[in-house]
Design brief:
The chain has 3 domains: 119 residues, Gyrase A, domain 2, CATH 3.30.1360; 130 residues, Four Helix Bundle (Hemerythrin (Met), subunit A), CATH 1.20.120.430; 165 residues, P-loop containing nucleotide triphosphate hydrolases (Rossmann fold, 3-Layer(aba) Sandwich). The radius of gyration is 29 Å and the shape is flat. Strands 3-4-5-6-2-1-7 form a 7-stranded mixed sheet. Helices cover 44% and strands 17% of the residues. Helix 6 packs antiparallel against helix 7. The structure holds guanosine-5'-triphosphate and magnesium ion (MG). The site of guanosine-5'-triphosphate (GTP) has 24 residues, from helix 9. The site of guanosine-5'-triphosphate has 24 residues, from helix 9.
Length: 460
């Protein structure tokens, strides 16, 4: 186990680099004692009430001044980790905070591991695992929507729903167990219909949570959009135009892009991982062949495919072959080079109407049509985002566990309907509760916990 609750831990909690202030955090049973050993102010911190700030200096064991600081005293239990905490606000820059930290370590603190403050908060029951992960999501949020949903999760919106689901599952288990173990003189246990109804009730809650999870994952991780098409149609030019910088190499020669190039950007507020790929054609060498293979894989793995054709020249058999190899329901056909004219051919530029998710005419050169394309990508990728409604489920780990809850409930209901022994139904109901507990942390395997907290930075 990583946890060592007896230790008093310290770390620099602010980012490294020049800045106005830096914060060194000290947490644990001996936090106040260690802080007092290094702090010189008008008051002894031991005598200070909780949630108060004190001006003073930190001095090392030889009495040499280390930095001028503001010490914030936060006493257990109403602190982030649940322990006593002292936070030293030092001068910014790498050195003052590092010297203060060294002084605290010399006075008996231990350097905190990555995420150890948050891990303590979790172990002390101050946060459940969903909330601890939300802390990480807040730090790493790349979009407004991602930040909003992470804040909602930290405030317990998702945890509240999960705990209501847990209640339903516990009721279900109680009913099944009553059926397993029927005492002679008691009232009738709930019949199969009641148990199936309860399982359905739980499933409805699970499904409601899962219903917009694709959107949630997109909000947190970005939607993968693969730009594909035959060589020289302007895929890299389009990538650069959307990014508004020259990221991908553009030349007049077909076969310029070899490797798949990935960049993150916002398209109408939607986080997108844009992937430029090699033009699809019969490769002329091994490197190109590998590039085309990557392009195919990118198209297969992406949430959305941007199939680029030359709007001015019109489509040919090569374009048609590529169009036949992608999934039309998640493909937008983009006619590029509109500045050179538009060949006849209608909506999909002459490609068969396979039920494309959308079509747009653009010029990567002049920028014409790009705003409409951005809106199209956002609306096809996410559908309408309901205003003011937080996206609750954004984490693949949570989604995976909830799917397992759902599967266990389906199996349980099926067993009841088939008249299987209640003992078997009870096993499935237990599975469902265990899977749910993995999300909030009650039954999360140790190695998963470790992996989660290791993703944090030191000092959080
Ligand atoms: N007139 C015009 N030329 C364009 C436009 N977009 C791209 N081009 C030109 O078309 C040529 C090919 O552009 P690229 O962006 O390299 O095309 P690509 O599809 O990435 O090509 P490969 O990487 O070889 O598959 C370059 O000469 C671009 O300047 C456009 O909208 N209008
Ligand atoms: Mg290219």
């Amino acid at each position: 186990m990583r946890a060592s609750p007896g230790d008093t831990i310290a770390a620099i909690s602010t980012a490294v680099g020049p800045g106005a202030i830096a914060i060194v955090r000290l947490a644990g049973d001996r936090a106040i004692e260690i802080a007092d050993a290094v702090f010189r102010g008008s008051r002894v911190l031991r005598d200070c009430p909780t949630h108060t700030v004190h001006h003073g200096r930190v001095a090392d064991a030889d009495g040499r001044e280390v930095d001028e600081v503001l010490a914030t005293v936060l006493l257990s239990p109403n602190t982030y980790t649940g322990d006593d905490i002292v936070e030293f606000g030092c001068h910014g820059g790498a050195l003052p905070a590092r010297r203060v930290l060294e002084t605290l370590l010399a006075a008996g603190a231990r350097l905190a591991r990555r995420g150890e403050f948050t891990e303590r908060a979790f172990l002390a029951g101050r946060l459940d695992l969903v909330q601890a992960e939300a802390v990480l999501d807040i730090i790493t949020a790349r979009t407004r929507l991602g930040l909003e949903s992470a804040l909602g999760q930290l405030e317990g919106e998702l945890s509240g729903r999960l705990s209501r689901l847990r209640e339903t599952l516990l009721d279900l288990r109680a009913e099944i167990e009553a059926a397993v173990d029927v005492p002679e003189d008691e009232i009738e246990p709930p019949g199969p219909a009641a148990i199936v109804a309860r399982a359905d009730d739980a499933r409805a809650r699970v499904e409601e949570l899962l219903s917009r999870c694709d959107l949630g994952v997109a909000v947190r991780e970005g939607i993968a959009v693969a730009i594909v098409g035959k060589p020289n149609v302007g895929k890299s030019s389009l990538m650069n135009a959307l990014l508004r910088r020259d990221r991908s190499i553009v030349t007049a020669l077909p076969g310029t892009t070899r490797d798949a190039i990935e960049e993150f950007l916002h398209v109408s507020g939607v986080p997108v991982r844009l992937i430029d790929t090699a033009g699809w054609r019969e490769a002329t060498d091994a490197a190109e062949e590998a590039g085309v293979e990557r392009a195919r894989a990118a198209a297969a793995g992406a949430s959305l495919v941007a199939l680029v054709v030359d709007a001015a020249a019109g489509v040919d058999n090569e374009d048609a072959a590529i169009a036949g190899a992608v999934d039309p329901a998640r493909t937008i056909v983009i006619g590029n080079k509109l500045d050179l004219g538009k060949a006849p051919g209608g909506g999909a530029f002459g490609l068969d109407d396979r039920g494309w998710a959308g079509a747009a005419s653009v010029s990567a050169l002049t920028g014409e049509g790009l705003d409409d394309l951005r809106r199209l990508i956002a609306s096809v990728a996410l559908g309408e985002i309901p205003e003011g409604e937080p996206v609750l489920l954004t984490n693949v780990r949570h989604i995976d566990a909830l799917r397992r809850v759902d599967e266990a409930l389906v199996r349980a209901a099926r067993l009841v309907e088939r008249g299987s022994p209640p003992e078997l139904v009870a096993i499935e109901a237990r599975e469902a509760t265990l899977a749910l507990g993995e999300i909030t942390g009650e039954t999360t395997p140790e190695d998963v916990l470790e992996r989660i907290f290791e993703r944090f930075c030191v000092g959080k």
